[in-house]
Protein 1
Amino acid sequence: MILIVDDKIENITALTKILISQNFDVDSALSGEEALKKVLKNEYQLVILDVQMPGMDGFEVAEAISGIRKTSELPIIFLSAVNVSKAFITKGYTSGGHDYLVKPVDPDILVLKIRTFIKLQEQTKELARIQQDLRNEIEQRKHAEEKKDELMGMVSHEVKTPLTSVKAYIQLAGVAVHSNRMENALQFINKADSQIDKLNQMMTALLDMAKMEAGMLDFNVGEFNLNQLVDGALDIFIQSNPERQVVRTGDADIVLRGDLLRLEQVILNYLSNAAKYSPETETIGVAIQRRADNDVEICVTDKGIGIAEEDQGNLFKKFYRTEQSIAEYRGMGMGLYLCAEIVKFHGGTYGVKSNPGGGSTFYFTLPIELDEPIVNPSIA
């Protein structure tokens, strides 16, 4: 829309007819004060401004428009029927004008200049948008590089510990063998094997995350019974944690569709976290229940350290770890992030209920019936 500012209604009417005939939207103001109010309230592509007006003259209006951040780039064309001196025209440009035309103005020249200035303004806005996009991209890449460096440092630190332990246990096992203490050697070998399992889990999580970032994480979808999923996860967990007792409740005789192994990975992660963050508690609860919205909910409950309310909303974000967990427990903060992406793929929900010192319940839901087949999306 173009704003015409002139204290004479006949001038506004004449210019309006010209511009409307060229398919421009037009607004008008009969004074500089009215023009400023409209410029602040509305969006204009260009202002045609009469120089000599009572009250605020055209130069004062132009200076005011140019001095406002919102309108500083708004093109202004001055029209004057009296002053055509070089000094007067120069003042028009220095006050914020983009062009200075003398009345009577040639309609074709006026329209050509209007189109030119509007096009330049659009190009300026587009350039500013591109520059902002580039700045955002640079900032994102910088942030990604910082995260990458942080991850590499974290991975290096986390991998070094099990590798050092494996080397030490193997050396101790060798000494025990040479001393004919086979029982001790077997204990050291079992401990080394446990550390290798931890290292394997860590590498698997890293590879899964890399695939997920690239949208290449594979899902093998099929039908299965929920009992099969829960039993498989519990068997694996109990073999690795024989000192723990898992109390299971609820009916799991439900047929679902999804990736059995990926969902087993979610339950195992929940169980592993329950064991990790409740070291003094032997019992972990696993509850399955149907919900009114035709979903099934799987909950894993511990009696561990609990989680502060301000941390709960961030737990499923990539690399997030609470201050307490960083200080007391090892890890890279990838497990729950992967769980969240797997559950989202299956059309489910996830979350945590917890109180500091009162234990935690991690849960996720899965739809019992799906209207449409699951299709592997591009995950980023």
Protein 2
Amino acid sequence: MLDVLSTRVTNYRTQHDDGALAVWGLGAVSLLAAFVLFMNSSRWTVVPVVGFLALVAVGWFAYQPETAMGLTFLATLATVTVLGLIIAFTVREALPAMRAMGLDLLLRTEKPLWGGDTYSLTPMMFGTALTTLIATVVAAPLGIAGALFLSEIASDTVREVVKPGVELLAGIPSITYGFVGFVIINDFFYAKLRTPTIGNYFTVGAVIGVMALPTIVTVAEDALSTVPESMKSGSLAIGSTDWQTMKSVTIPAAFSGVSAAVLLGVGRAIGETMAATVMIPHTKAFPDPLYDVFGGVGETLTTVIAFEAGNASGTHYSALFAAGVVLFTTVFALSVVSQYVEARMERKFGGSR
């Protein structure tokens, strides 16, 4: 083991200048000192930070390739570390509620469900699943259709106008969507269609689906555009129509990218907070019957966190962190599924294209 480590160190020294290695070493010491001082709330934290910045400036002019590689490694390490700390903190804060409620935190369906000494995430988990399903039904077919239009049907002039417009929709703040949904859509359903309350799962899911459209259209269109022209030309040459080519050649060849686009849209739907918080009734119960998306109840994991975090304490506060853990786990599972689908399609078609 020591021989292998010694060999690697020797090879590293032969590949990089001693001055660059010295900059790396001093930079690492500066960052470590800054972290220790920061954790101890020291006013001298700025000293090693300034020292690190000075080392980066010297290294960039004297040893630019090595400095760029070190900064890239540092950015990667910082990203992983921060993510790990966030996960650890969230799980730690959720532990009191997990100990107090046990499996009832995730499985309890009898009243009371929320308040006092009882906190069950089950109705919020159901609400999240229901709004996500509605959003996916709205966004997935429309998003894929929009991507096909931009990639395969639209002229260059139309594409240059429509695609930036679609991407611009992603920049609209979610609170704006929520305000429009609350003032116009919720009011229309309540006044004209006589829904029990202002706000329901259907209107929330529909608005979130519209919000997810730019993500799905943009990512799916980029995936469809990578399909080699020779594959489409070959299909047309044997007598297939444009629609048959899109259905049987273009979409299957880009399926990994298209599925990733849909999953990204689903992730947007699961994590949407502000628009749903403005529109939803904030009633922690199950619809009766369960498929009644127009009923007078509604709450999701994200909305309960946003709506109640400011006044929560004790087990209530911990239960909100438990909701965050459930959200993180769900999105992580979606990411794993997306990677599996992409790997499977690469094996099936012999590559990513």
